[in-house]
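Q: I'm writing up a methods section and want to include an example of the input and output format. Could you take the sequence below and give the corresponding predicted structure tokens, formatted cleanly so I can copy it straight into the document?
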Amino acid sequence: MISALLSAGWRLLPATRVSDPGCGLKLVRRTALEAITIPPGVKGFSFGAEVLVRMTRNGARLAEIPVRWTDDDAGRIRLGKAARDYARAWWRLFWKN
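A: Here is the clean output for your methods example:
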């Protein structure tokens, strides 16, 4: 449920064409990554999603390939920290970009 809400929030950003930006599995071409500017301090849970949005806005082509996800009890997300990371990223991408 929370993941779906966060993904919906990313899709509200202008020029965003990613259905699940929070998925941790990403492969990118070096040239596409080098063509964007990542502001200092961008890190944490939202890093990959922000990179995808910036690459999309810069004209990179994205291909999404479905993966089968299984929950692992070893990994835990701290929702408060993740929400703050996402809020900062949305601010940078929506209002400051």
